[in-house]
Amino acid sequence: MREDKERHVVVVGGGLIGACTAYFVAKQENVRVTVLERSSAYANVTSYANAGRFAVTQFIQGPPANPTMISEALQMILPQFLRASPSSAYIPTSEGVPPTPPFEYKKSAEMSTALVGWGLWYLRNCTQTRFEHNKESAQLLAARSINAMDTVMRELGKYRHKLFEVHPGALFTFNDKNHFDSFSHKAEVVHEFSESLGRLASAPSWNLLSCDECLKKFPFMRTWRNPSSDSLPISQIHANVGGGCVESTDWTVDARKFTHAVVSALEKTGKVEFRLRTHVQSLIQENGRVSGVHLDDGETILADDFVLCMGNDTPGLVQPLLGSFQTLPIVGMQGYTVDLLGCRNVPSVSMADLGSKDINWQLTLYSKSRVRITGFANFASTLDSDAARGELAKEQLLAYTRFVLPNMTWQQSETQWAGLRPMSPDNLPMIGKISGYQNVYVNCGQGSLGWTMSAASGSILADAMFCSKETLSHNDATLIERLSPNRFSLSSFFGVS
Ligand SMILES: Cc1cc2nc3c(=O)[nH]c(=O)nc-3n(C[C@H](O)[C@H](O)[C@H](O)COP(=O)(O)OP(=O)(O)OC[C@H]3O[C@@H](n4cnc5c(N)ncnc54)[C@H](O)[C@@H]3O)c2cc1C
Questions:
Q1: Which Pfam family is one of those matched by this entry (predicted)?
Q2: Pairing of strands 305-308, 7-12
Q3: How confident is the model over 313-323, as pLDDT tens digits?
Q4: Whole-model pTM above 0.70?
Q5: What is the 211 CA–ligand 1 centroid distance (Å)?
Q6: Which of 12, 46, 331 to mutate to test the pocket of ligand 1 (most atoms within 8 A of CB)?
């Protein structure tokens, strides 16, 4: 530790990542923290209504950027870029849903450049060597996420089951038996990872269930994708279900509630000041340092260190500090959420339908009568506030829900909400100091797993700020090195691996 006088640390952004960053920074001695958030509440943007799945098993597999993904990536990105429809959406037309997916890449000059840059970095990470390297980093991050979240939950006072409505496990569903079979090798990877963690109580696991096992464990699956399945022969039910995969150690929670619990715990320490409706407009640079931030109302806030945790907006603020040949390649992937209230015949487990393709359907259990449906993942430069498109997204999510779970009913659906997953090309977050500046850090790019990685991301950032390499374990030092935002430099792009 290198502390003698009090350090004032400004954290910009009050989402999951900003709150967890403040949490771990405030643990240091001689530090006071100010969190600046431009909206009127914490976790009000992407951290508001995500699917809330603590899902380390998702990144144990390694990033989507891998040698076999080059053609798939081009198929995914190019149509959006050219404004064609995304490929192969699974839309149940029998339910009266328009057959054409309405979600297209939102064209803008700014987004075109960002997406091209991001796409190049994505392709650069598709070599076997980079894939293996990124997978190893993701697994280190998975282990850190389990431990760091466990710590935060325990320190919040009551363990997670008492503080939040936590639902253990998640069920993955498939198109058919072939789809299910093609998935089985992934469970092996999760198994190997868990073995490598030793006897950690919360080591993740995936249990593959044949169709019959799935129906036995989850009787509601008898009507999966078929309103009349009661009268159908079992062979037809088999065709609809294929099989299932249970993530028994993952769990779901309301991520916004979690953020609020972190904020109120921090407020009680007296070391952290939170300021809402505070919009940072620019950074004030002086001699290789940033001395303060300008707010949009003309106020200036000075501090010793600055941590930018602004999700998708981070690259814009930080770009003036980077050289002409460096960027923070983050693009937004928009998702939609609808909360259903007064539900009946609710599944007994949270779900993710891997057969839903572009709809990317997930169901999160909150209580016996309240569930959350999330879906879609399309590139967007800024949050799409077009009400008509939002309504269409909601209609499609509801129609798909009726299609797959015909027996579930609800009395009310709340207004749909949209969020942007801040995606990095290698699917790893960017955590650490900006090169050339001694006191500016970023913590962003957590993508579709920001809730899962939030505690780990906050603790890694605090290590990067306050600890020297020699005082850290090998794994912790490795994570700091590998997650550095400076990995997206020109020399790294043209490096040999
Ligand atoms: C549909 C959907 C489902 C998801 N499901 C899951 C899931 O099941 N599990 C999981 O682990 N993750 C999930 N995620 C991902 C997760 O929600 C995100 O990774 C996470 O919320 C990102 O948090 P953040 O704090 O970086 O960003 P944000 O929540 O966007 O927070 C950034 C904050 O910075 C503020 N800000 C921006 N610019 C400024 C400025 N200039 N001045 C001041 N403040 C500023 C914003 O107002 C915002 O509050 C999902 C995401 C989506 C969209």
A1: DAO
A2: parallel
A3: 999 999 999 97
A4: yes
A5: 36
A6: 46
